[in-house]
Every structure is written in C-alpha cells, then in structure tokens.
Amino acid sequence: MLLAEPGVGAVPLWKSRVEFVTHLLQDDQGRVVLDHAAALGADAASLHFQYDDGGALTLSLDHGSVVVGGHPIGHYLSGGALQVGWRQLVLDASRTDTPAALALVRSWRPSGLSRDEETYLALMQEKVAALSAPPRTASQIQDVAPAEPGGLVIDLSDLSNPARLAPLLRSAAGLSGPGLRITVPGGRAHVGDFSVGTGERLQGPILVIRGNAEIFGTVDGNLATVQGNVVVHPGSIVTGDVLALAGQVRDIGGDIRGQIHTLDTPRAPTPQAETVAPVSPLLRLARNASGVAGVFLTLLLVGLGLVLFARQPLEVVSDTVLHSFSRSFLVGLLGQVLLLPTFGMLIVGLILTVAGILLVPFAVIVFTLLLVLAVLGGFLAIAHAMGESITRRQLARGASIVSANSYRYVTVGLGAVAMLWLAWVVFGWVPLAGTLVFVTAILVTWMLATVGFGAALLSRAGLKEHFAGRLLPTESLTDEYLWATPQFGVTAVKRPGRDKTPPPL
User: Fold this and answer.
1) Which residue, 245, 244, 243, is CA-closest to 221?
2) Helix, strand or coil for residue 344?
3) Cα-only R_g, the chain
4) pTM for this structure?
5) What pLDDT is attached to residue 354?
6) Structure letter (DSSP) for residue 303
7) Residue 263: which of 162, 365, 398, 138 has the closest Cα?
8) Rounded to an integer, what distance in angstroms lies between the CA atom of residue 437 and that of residue 46?
9) Which site from 105, 268, 365, 366 is most exposed, i.e. has the minimal number of CB atoms within 10 Å?
10) Paired residues of 65 in beta bridges
11) In this predicted structure, what is the pLDDT of residue 93?
C-alpha cells in the first residue's frame, strides 16, 4: 500500500507508520492536558489539546489528509465514514470539558471504516492514550471574595474608558492575603491563572488578578486582567470588551466581538547600559596621543607621496599661500559658502538635460574627489609653505641643513601643526584648559585648511602661477639669493638680469 502526498512521490505506508510510532514513543508520554479547543471548517476538523508545560497536540482531518501532531500519516475519502464520524466527534468535544474530550477520542469507534482508516484511528488513539487531564478543582480557580461595605468595588460593565478604571485595577493588584476582597458588580474576580474550557460558557464581567486568562470557550461579557495576559484561542468567543493592565491581549484565532484595550503594556527588557569606569588621565593621554599620531602619520605619508608624484603643483599652491595669504583665506571662505550651491546647480543642470541624467552619478563622484583633493592638497601645501618658511629662516641664521627640499618642508610643516595638537594631548585632562586648547587647535586647523583650500582654488590646483609671486626666473629663486640678498634698501650684490644666470659670489 502506498500513500501519495500532493506534489510528493509515493511513500510506503509501513514507512509512514514506523516513523509515526517512533515519534509516538519519543514524545507526549505522560503529558498533562490543561485545556482543549475544537475547530470545524468546510473541509477540515481538528482537536487541539494544550499541555500544562506549553506544548500542544493537534489531531485533524484537513482537506483529505489525516494529520497527527503536525505529521501527515495518510489520506481519507471525502464524505466517507471517517470524515463524518470525526466531524461529529469534534462537535461533541466542543460541548464538554477536557477530560471528557479525551475520553471521547479514546472510546471513538465509528462503523464503516476501511482497513487503512482503522489504522489511522488506532494511531490517533495511541497518541492520546498516555495523556491525562485531571478535572479542575476549586483550589485551581481561586475566587476572590466580595468586599465588605465600603470596600473596593470595580465595575467592569463599561470598558470604553480604561483610564478611569486604571487606578482601581492597580489598587486591586496590590491586595493580598485576607485583604484581597473585591466586588465586581454582576461578575466575578479571580486571582492567579484562569482558563475557560472549550465546553464552558461563563457570564461576565470577569476580572483576573496577577495571572493569565486562557480562553478556549465562551465568555459572555467583558474580560479584564491585571498583571497578566489574555490569550484567546481558536474557536473561543468573547462577546464583550477585553482590557489588559500591565499585560497583552493575544488573539490567536478566537473571536473578540468588542474592543481591545491595553494599559501599561510591558515591553521587552532592554539590556542595561554597562557602567563605564572613569578613564584615568594617563590612559586618556595615551588614547589622544595615539589618535593624533595616527592622523598626522597618515597625512605625512600622503604628503610625501604628493611631493613624489606632483611636486610642481604642490609648490605652486605653496607659493600662492606664501605670497597671497589673505587673498587665499578669503577665497577659501567664499568657496566654503558656495560649495553646496555650486553642487546643487551642477546636479540640476545635468538633470534638465536628457543625456546629463546619466552623468549624475559620475558627476557626484568626480565632484567629491575634486573636493577632497582640494582640501587635502591645500592643507599639505600650507604645511609645505610653513616648513619652507621655517627652513629658510634657519638658513638665514646660519644653520647647517643637509637637505632643504620639499620632503623636509612637508615634514616640518606637519610637525609644526602637530605641536598644537600635542599641547591638547598633554593638557586635555585638565577641565578648563583642555577645552580651551582643544577649541584653539580646531580653529587654527580650520583656518589653515581654509587658506590651503583658497590657494588651491586661486592656483587652479597648482596649474596657474598668477598669485604665486614668481616675478623672477626660477633659477634666481635660490636660498642664497632670497635670504642673503636684501629685497629693500642697499643691495649686497647687483641683481641679475631677467634672462641671465647670476654670477657666482
């Protein structure tokens, strides 16, 4: 005998039975059933048994398949004896309590079943054979005694204004022991977990304190919980409103015909922020020093690479800084102000043209790269200018320098800027002085970057020498000539001609 699943190849019946029996021997042995639910559909009928530890077992005939515990074990004939008998069994189980529902499944003996259907029935009854459902006793449902005259009275006939009931419900949650006495006009109050079985029909309103309300049957009226959740299971009905104070309302297939209200809904606990130990001044100094060293080491490597591959443009921008410092600063400020408008006009101009729309991504990338090059290159150029000025002053004082070149200029200039940040590293732990030094370092760095940016704009990234101050030929701009020869007053030697190389001194 073969079992054919829709869209699946034929499965031997003996294999399906062996797998199910193996699963049967592993699970659901000695489990206690808390409650049950019955569901009837056009071509489906199921019984759902809820265990006391949170698990569940579902027996169903669903669109031609016999399903036990989520595992299909075979097929039944639509309109046959198995389907007709099972639907009647589910209907009967919906009208009784859980122990009686289990007894109905165990004693069910419909007539007219085929050999395969009798096998399915035996497997279903084996599945529930080891289950137990002790009847609920009065100790399991702890009724709250009515309050004495002048005591706490909570009227749950109208839940449309839950904020009005919230103070009373919070007061009820704080009662315990002999003082736990509450009057619910026309209804009842319970403390602890509470459930309504599939075959039960209770008249509301119902108040549940410090417990969950599991609804499998029918509640005629309003239902409220304090410090507990309301769970409405498949097939259950609540004809009135539902209110959960410091809890949640979960409708997993039931029918809530009124409105749902929640107050003080508990949220998932958020991990507490770790207590950060105060950082010692020595550790803070080490962190700041490492950060500053990393930044300036990166700038030094980029600067040396720029000297190696683009020395001529770098020197032109540097000379522009030396000879047009104020103009470079003003142009840098103006460039910062017009940066975003220029970018916006560029993008809008491209979008207004058919072919330009395709160039928008490339324009954004190119504009960003040019901006980074102008800012970074300008900053390195002003470091070059600072290093060149410091070196030439040392030469004028007669200092002996082995190599006065652009590599040295960039290194010395970056070192001069780094000294300002090193002052912040040393005094950063001081409450007021550290802040002042930090603000000063930021302002000076911004001013230098602005000047460098303006010089890059004035010199067209080092391609134009209009503001570089190179009025004399390049061969005349030597250290000896610029520093040993006065530019004003009495000259030490005669200036060379414009097109002549100066004679040796």
Assistant:
1) 243
2) helix
3) 44
4) 0.43
5) 78
6) H
7) 162
8) 77
9) 268
10) 62, 75
11) 79
- Closest listed residue to residue 176, CA positions, set 199, 157, 192: 192
Reported as a single tens digit per residue, the pLDDT across 255-284 is 899 999 888 765 555 444 444 556 677 887
Cβ–Cβ < 8 Å for 288, 425: yes
Residues 314 and 307: beta-carbon distance below 8 Å: yes
Give the three-class secondary structure for 15: helix
- C-alpha distances (whole Å) from 265 to each of 214, 225, 261 are 18, 12, 10
Q: Which two tokens stand for residue 377?
A: 């290159």
Q: What is the pLDDT of residue 502?
A: 55
Taking the CA atoms of 447, 448, 450 and 455 in sequence, report the sign of the dihedral they define.
positive
Cα torsion at 410, 414, 417, 422 (round to 10°)? Answer: -160
CA–CA–CA angle 365, 367, 368 (5° rounding): 65
Q: Whole-angstrom Cα distance, residue 3 to residue 13?
A: 6
Interatomic CA distance for residues 262 and 228, integer angstroms: 11
User: Any idea what the Cα angle at residue 290 is, between residues 289 and 291, rounded to 5°?
Assistant: 90
- Residues 196, 219: contact at Cβ < 8 Å? yes
**pLDDT lower than 70: segments of the chain:** 1-30, 95, 135-142, 265-279, 468-505
pLDDT of residue 200: 80
